[in-house]
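Q: Protein A?
A:
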Amino acid sequence: MAKVDALPQATTDSGGLRRDVGLIGLMWASVGSIIGSGWLYGAEKAVVVAGPAAVISWVIGAVAIVLLALVHAELGGMFPVAGGTARYPHYAFGGLAGMSFGWFSWLQAATVAPIEVEAMIGYAGHWQWAQSLQHTDGTLTPSGFLTAVLLMAVFVGVNFFGVRALAHTNSAATWWKIAVPLGAIFIIAAGNFHPGNFTSEGFAPFGAKGVLGAISTSGIIFALLGFEQAIQLAGESRNPKRDLPRATLGSVAIGAVIYILLQVVFIAALPHGSFAHGWAKLDFAGISGPWAGLATIVGLGWLGWVLYIDAIISPGGTGLIYTTATSRVSFGLARNGYAPKAFALTDKRGVPWFGLLMSFVTGVFCFLPFPSWQELVGFITSASVLMYAGAPLAYGVFADRLPHRERPYRLPGGKVVSPLSFVVANLIIYWSGWDTLWRLGFAILLGYVLLGSYAWYATRKRLPDAPRLDFRAAQWLPGYLVGLGLISWLGGFGGRGTIPLWWDILVVAVFSLVVYYWAKATASQPEAIERSIDEVVVTDMPAH
């Protein structure tokens, strides 16, 4: 295994973090994030929105995530730094864009652990003792809120044992998280596979709009997200240049195959009476825990009990690793000068302890404004994909302005894949709907107030790490955010419906390409990019 000292100095980034994680630890961090509450709810939510055509929704979602993962795989190899997704736009477009996408990254990471806690409590409602934890509308009761807070405390507590302990804990949980869905797929399908279910009530009863809407609103993209966790832990990887691309692409392949099989088997195994009145009215005993309920009604009660146990382990493992990610993203923000240096403080185990404590506080707060799993899914999907959208933009800049920089993994056809992945990212954001996007807009404004206030304070006090907010290189950013919101408001996914279906896809695609090439044209010059990278090396070099 390569040691830290063997890494090229241009990409060495530790700053107190310990390089203890190998390929399996990185891959399992991503796989463990992908296989979470999404598998417990995703198939049921998607079929209600799209009918059996939800299988197509999963395929489209998987292709979209693969495109984004390919871009991240090259960038992760080039820049194996902690909280990488928060840093690529900083290198390419300077301080304002870096601060913005850093906030998007942190917002996404900080709100996933609460959604996994919500899923755990929701499935636990099967047991009588846990029915008092939620109201009938899915909101938490006082005892449910206390339980959620305790679960968040467990996530944070495990993280304080250090990344090595986390990797071992997550690896053990991930083996289980892979085995249980695969077991459910084959055991249920063996005696309960009814091909007629795909056509008896119409294959696509809600048309193309249902297929596309399901990608964002039913939790498909949310379920497939998580490949970036390997990249967030790059600063703790033993051999990041070799392992990051493998872990990123491998985790996406594993997750996509499992989720598509789950959707196929879920549809085929349902008794016809459960959807005889239409897929939008799908109902059966135990539907609040869809897979466990399905296993029970087809006569596999023992499997149902296993799945109820998994409803604790799978979301718990994902919440655990996203708690880690939150502290690593805030670590990266502090290293770039966007957040107070307290977020970059590490203890003797190399754990960013202040960032962990703030992830706990934020997670607890998230139980208040977004009380149900479905509401959180829509919000997280938009925040996640907005975060990912920064990587294709940065990729285009690096391809043009750093063409000779070492790339352990070089994406074939990257100059085509990169703008295409940016278009796809914006379509996913658009399909999440106006009702979700206007809430996301408020969260973005809050980030500008918080991080902007610190940047102003750091500049006024002339702190050595005060960020340079390069407005020229990020001049496209306001137009991008406002324009995407305007298209959503005018579109047919929760908006006014002024732009009809299919035309809206064309509008989003053209708008995305304009922003992509506008961003490339005004990005930082090569010397400014190299200076930003070198500044990370100076501030993040490990102490000897």
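Q: Protein B?
A:
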Amino acid sequence: MRDEEREQRVRPGRPRLALGALSGALAGFAALAVAELVAAAVRPQSSPVIAVGAASIDTTPAAVKDWAIRHFGTDDKLVLQLGILTVLTVLALVLGVLAVRFRRAGAAGVLLFGAVGAAAAAGRPDSTGLADVLPSVVGALAGAVLLYVLTGRLTVVRRPSMYGREEVPEGVGAGLAASTGWDRRGFVVVAASTAAASAVVGGAGRSLNASRGQDAVASRKKVVLARPGSPAAPVPARAALRVPGISPFTTPNSSFYRVDTALVVPKVDATTWRLRVHGQGVRRAVTYSFDDLLRRELIERDITLTCVSNEVGGPYVGNARWIGVRLADLLAECGVRPPSRGGPADQLVARSVDGMTIGSPVEDVMDGRDALLALGMNGEPLPFAHGFPVRMVVPGLYGFVSACKWIEDIELTTFDAYDPYWVKRGWARRAPIKTSSRIDTPKPFARPDAGTVMVAGVAWAQHRGIDKVEVRVDDGPWQQAHLAAEDTRDTWRQWSFPWQATRGSHTLTVRATDRTGTVQTDRRTRTIPDGASGWHSVVVTVD
């Protein structure tokens, strides 16, 4: 056949390239929608966006994670997912443009990203096996086929005919009447059908994913927390100051900070939940059910928790009333002894249902402090976001070395033998909470009127207690603030200072002294590796 008689593809113009980009976006939307539906049949965590997001969290340097928490707070996970969707959208647009000229290459690109999602899902610590790769694989296949079909409606080839050379949409027979240009009607039909079907499939997937947690929700509603055998003492009346703008002594569940790596909050059915205790020094592995814990003596304590990602003056600290079982008693019944009494294990590794591992010093857990396997928070079963059905609470230690949520496994081992999740990423193995204080009111850049201005806030040094808080105005002398009554040494204390404010710009600074006599240091350090330090200051302008 002579060269001029061979089929030749017509170079696409800008309109068809734009529609190619649209085809890529529609194919990508369809791929994610199908993947969401398949994930509903497998488990929500197998969704490619969730799997890739979780893998991104695991591989992100600690400094970047710290930056994200500092700038986005508890919205960091939403920002991450939106970022992933944005990147996928851009790539889908590029693949769509590519597929206008190279259909197979465009479709192969979609399959490649499906493989990335499948690898991310299979590589998760909580992966359930090959089933986790199905959403990414099936979604990518659907997206690749749709991109191939859609861009086929946009592809024009020149073929020889009895009348000479004619342009017809690829796939249309040369013996048909000549119809130059691409298949507009076919493209519109396929594109509209794809968009509608994807919306339906994606909506069904989200609905089914939401319904998967109904058994867990029902199990939580049925939980009745028995009266604790060791109730918390009533909070002293003078522990809560009546100063507008100060943090409440007890942080409501809805306002309690949440910092973890779970993109999807695990919803665990308490009726099927189990906790396994095993490892060095354990006479034999023991498994507990939720009912087993409910039948034990419950204790109730007010305990302040702090996240190691909390910057100086930051919001990631809160106080709650917890109810649960003594962790030390449960470990002792399994034969565990602390290192000071000859026990072979110095590290307790707690594992969550989402694969998180958190290591705690055995000595601290068993030294007499109120370390808990908590079942309730502020008078109700744990909220799902805070670890239902069971989590660890250990006063005096930052959460990354103590506060495992959705716990399902406790292994006794050594610090030399195993590095848990955060240690592998450059954080400290042991992290007692540093003596800290914060100014809650006035807020930074506030403009109070001249006269008496109440400066107030909170200070904490869990398991040591706060002995003194001092305030300094500009470069003046330190002046002692009024301390609210102490509840326990494991809770924060409110403080206040009546400042006789004069007109102009002023810097207010606070520092605390704990019960050991240690004065809060002015040396500024980052949160990595064992918590931030430094004095909290605010600048205000007095009118």
